[in-house]
Each structure stands twice: as structure tokens, then as C-alpha cells.
């Protein structure tokens, strides 16, 4: 539910127990900005703060679905410079993400992994109830492929952020968000489904 800022303190706590973790990050935005309106901590900066605090195993960070507006002309450069794998939305259009998740699984190995899913990673045709909708996003089926593709990995936590039900009178975004959270719970280690 909350904005993506919540991932930063969660990963601080996770890193206290597990050390730097891998990350599967689904989002329309890279969330690696330095500042907005003079603030260093805001919903567009959590991954930069996590890198600076040593919370992420940077060679095991994958960002999927990035597109749309940004704070600068090269919105993916910071992450790429850190060793993140960036998969822009246009590389996902019109195809299954199962092959991509096979590669992600190999990249993650058996080390601790966190999943952070911003609902705006999905196209607003499916999830308009968010504060920063961006056209040409992922489909719900692709979201399921991503989450289900993480089953069997050493997932130590997950979140789903940026759902704003008041922006979607149909209730579809909240329904989709609840279903994606359920799917995340189902892929946690030790859960039998």
C-alpha cells in the first residue's frame, strides 16, 4: 500500500539479519534519484539509499518494467553503473517473461532475495489506482510469471507498494494488488500450495 519509500527501512532491517540481499524490483521507475524538492528520502530514491547503505548485493539486482517519466535524461544509468540488470518495459512487450525469470533465477542463486513490486509496473489499463501511472506497462499475466518465477528462491521478504484505491473507483487495482500479495506469500520458502 504505502509509497516506495517504505522499502528502504524494510531493507535496513532485512540486511541486519541477512546482509546485502538480491532484489527483484518491478516498477515503472528506477527509484534511484538523488533528490526531489530538496529531500534525499522520497519514493523515487529508495534504491539509491539502499546502495549507499550497502543493503543490496548489487550484482543480484534486477529491475523489470522500467519506462516513462524520470528525473533526468538517463534514468537507468545509476543502476546500470551499480551492476543492476535493467529490463525496460519494451523488452517485455508481447511475450512471456518465463525465459527472463529462468535467467533471473540463475543470477539470484541460493542467496537471500527480496521482491519489491510497485503496482505502477503494470499498465494503468489494469492498475490505474496509483499516483504515478505510466502507459505501456506489464500485464497481470507477466506479473504472475515474475512472482511465480521466484518460487524456490531464498526469498527473505517482499512488498507491494503504491496502490492508491481512491484513484480507481472500479476497485480493480486493489483487487490486483491483493492477488499479487497472495501470490508473493505463496512463493515464500516453506509454503506449500
Offer a few descriptive terms.
globular; 193 residues; metal ion binding; 5-stranded parallel beta sheet; 6 helices; SPEB protein; agmatinase activity
Structure write-up:
By secondary structure, the chain is an alpha/beta fold. The protein has one domain: 3-Layer(aba) Sandwich (Arginase, Chain A). The chain is 32% helix and 18% strand. The protein is built from six helices and five strands. Helix 4 runs parallel beside helix 5. The longest helix is centred in the last third of the chain and has 15 residues. The mean pLDDT is 95.
Summary?
With 193 residues, the protein is an alpha/beta fold. The protein has six helices and five strands; from the N terminus they run H-E-H-E-H-E-H-E-H-E-H.
The CATH class, by name, is: Alpha Beta
Overall mean pLDDT? 95
Helix and strand pattern: HEHEHEHEHEH
Give the end-to-end Cα distance, rounded to a whole number of Å. 25 Å
Radius of gyration: 15 Å
Helix content: 25-40%
Query: What is the CATH superfamily label?
Result: Ureohydrolase domain
Q: How are strands sequenced across the largest beta sheet?
A: 3-2-1-4-5
Hey, roughly how much beta strand do the residues contain?
Answer: 15-25%
CATH topology: Arginase, Chain A
SS-based structural class? alpha/beta
Number of strands: 5
Give the biggest sheet: 5 strands, parallel
Question: What is the overall shape?
Answer: globular
Second CATH tier, the architecture: 3-Layer(aba) Sandwich
Number of domains: 1
Pfam families: Arginase (PF00491)
Protein name: SPEB protein
Organism: Caloenas nicobarica (Nicobar pigeon)
GO molecular function: agmatinase activity; metal ion binding
Amino acid at each position: 500500500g504505502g509509497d516506495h519509500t517504505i522499502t528502504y527501512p524494510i531493507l535496513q532491517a532485512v540486511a541486519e539479519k541477512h546482509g546485502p540481499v538480491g532484489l527483484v524490483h518491478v516498477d515503472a521507475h528506477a527509484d534511484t534519484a538523488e533528490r526531489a524538492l530538496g529531500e534525499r528520502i522520497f519514493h523515487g530514491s529508495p534504491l539509491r539509499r539502499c546502495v549507499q547503505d550497502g543493503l543490496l548485493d548489487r550484482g543480484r539486482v534486477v529491475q523489470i518494467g522500467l519506462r516513462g517519466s524520470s528525473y533526468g535524461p538517463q534514468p537507468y544509468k545509476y543502476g546500470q553503473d551499480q551492476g543492476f540488470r535493467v529490463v525496460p518495459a519494451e523488452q517485455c512487450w508481447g511475450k512471456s517473461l518465463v525465459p527472463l525469470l529462468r535467467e533471473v533465477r540463475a543470477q539470484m542463486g541460493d542467496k537471500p532475495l527480496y521482491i519489491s513490486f510497485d503496482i505502477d509496473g503494470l499498465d494503468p489499463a489494469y492498475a490505474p489506482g496509483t499516483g504515478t501511472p505510466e502507459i505501456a506497462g506489464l500485464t497481470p499475466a507477466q506479473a504472475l510469471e515474475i512472482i511465480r518465477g521466484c518460487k524456490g528462491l531464498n526469498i527473505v521478504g517482499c512488498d507491494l507498494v503504491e496502490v492508491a484505491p481512491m484513484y480507481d473507483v472500479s476497485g480493480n487495482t486493489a483487487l490486483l494488488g491483493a492477488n499479487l500479495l497472495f501470490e508473493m506469500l505463496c512463493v515464500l520458502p516453506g509454503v506449500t500450495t
